[in-house]
Amino acid sequence: MTTDLVYHVAGAGLTGLALWRLATCRDALRRIMALNVLAIGIAMVLLASGFDAATGRTDPVPQAFALTGIVVLVSVTAALLALAERIGGRSND
Amino acid sequence: MTEASLIVSLPLLAAVVTAASARVARPVGLIATAANAALAILLARRVLAEGAQVTHLGGWEAPLGIAFETDGLAAVMILMAAIVGVAVAVQASDDRTPRSATDPGAFWPLWLATLGAMNALFLSADLFNLYVTFEILGLAAVGLTALTGTRRALRAAFDYLSAGLAGSLLLLLGVALAYAAAGQVDLSVVPALTESAQGRISLALIFAGLAVKAALFPLHFWMPAAHSSAAPVASALLSALVVKAAIYVALRLSLDGGIGAEPLRVAMAAAGAGAMLWGSWHALRADRLKLLVAHSTVAQVGLISLALGVAPGAADSTLWHAAVLLMLSHAFAKAAMFLAVGRIAEELGHDRISGLNREELRPGAAEFAFAVAAVSLIGLPPTAGFVGKWVLIEGLIDRDAWIWVALVFAGTVLSAAYLSRVVSRCLRGGPHVAPGARRPQWRAGDVAALGLAVSALLLGLGSALPFALLEITVT
Amino acid sequence: MSDLLPLAILLTSLGVAPVILALPDHWSRLRTALNLGAATIKVALVAWLSMAVASGADFGVGIAIAPGLSLELQADALSVLFLALSSVLWLLTTIYAVGYLEGGTDRSRFFGFFSLCVASTVGIAMAGNLFTFLVFFELLTLATWPLVVHRGSAEAHRAGRIYLIYTLGGGLALTLGTIWLYALAGDVPFTPRGVLGDLPETHRASVTAIFVLLIAGVGVKAALVPLHGWLPVSMVAPAPVSALLHAVAVVKSGAYGIMRIVYDVYGVDTVQALGLALPLAALAALTILWGSIRALRQDDLKKRLAYSTVSQVSYITLGVALISPLAAIGGLAHLIHQGIMKITLFLAAGNFAEARGVKTVSAMDGMGRLMPGTTLAFTIGALGMIGIPPLAGFVSKWYLGAGGLDVGQPAVIALLAGSSLLNAAYFLPILQRAWFRPPPEDVVPKRGIGWMLVAPPAVTAALVVAAGLLANAPFSPLGWTRFIVSLEYL
Amino acid sequence: MIAFDIVLTLGLLACAAMALTLRDRTASIAAFVVAGLLIALSWVRLAAPDVALAEAAIGAGVTGALFLRSARRIGPITGGPVGGMSASIAAALGAGGLSAALFWAFAGTSGPVPYPPLVAANLEASGVTNPVTAVLLNFRAWDTLLEIAVLAVALALVVMLGPAPVVPRALGELVLPFARIVVPLAILVAGHLLWQGATAPGGAFQAGAVLAGGMLALVLAGIGPAGERIVRGALLLGLAGLAVFVGAALAAEGLTGRFLGYPAGAEKAWIIAIEASLTLSIAATLCLLFTGPVRRPHQ
Amino acid sequence: MSAALFGLGLVLMSLGIVFLFVAALGLWRLPDLLSRLHVLTKADTAGLALVALGAACVSGSLAALLPLLLCVVLVAISGATIGHLVARSVTRRETAP
Question: Total structural domains in chain C?
Answer without folding.
Answer: 1
